[in-house]
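To: structure desk
From: M.T.
Subject: fold request, one chain
Message: Could you run this one when you get a chance? Sequence is below, nothing fancy, just the single chain.
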Amino acid sequence: MISLKVNGRKHDIDLSPDVPLVWVIREHLKLTGTKYACGKGLCGSCTVHIEGKAVRSCQTSVGDAAGKDITTIEGIPEGHPLKKMWVKEQVAQCGYCQPGQIMQAAELLSGDKNPSDEAIVRAMDGNLCRCGTYPRIKSAIRLAAKEGGK
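Reply: Done. Structure tokens follow.
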């Protein structure tokens, strides 16, 4: 039995410890905001926080996440500045990558309250958006930083 704490709630899962965390989040906990895309940790669609750090859940085993605080996109409150600015700036087109984008941006803002454009690009570099909304993503992060978003 593996014990997980996801979005503040404890879950006991009876699975092999080498199962990727993304499948536990999506299939067992039914938190489908975390997306599966490349399966190789290259695109960022599956990004969640473990102990406040952005990680690729497709490359993180449930065993490695056991006993740690895990936050998914569902754990980011609706009134959070990043979510509000994502809507205001109309970032999402298809929307598939956006939960991972927001999770990566949240880690950035937790450590840098006023990131430069270069810092934003560096932090977001591993998150891919097939729709190419990168200028809107950067704008939304800048606006969220002004609102004090972390």
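Reply (cont.): The chain has a mean pLDDT of 95. Let me know if you need anything else for the meeting.
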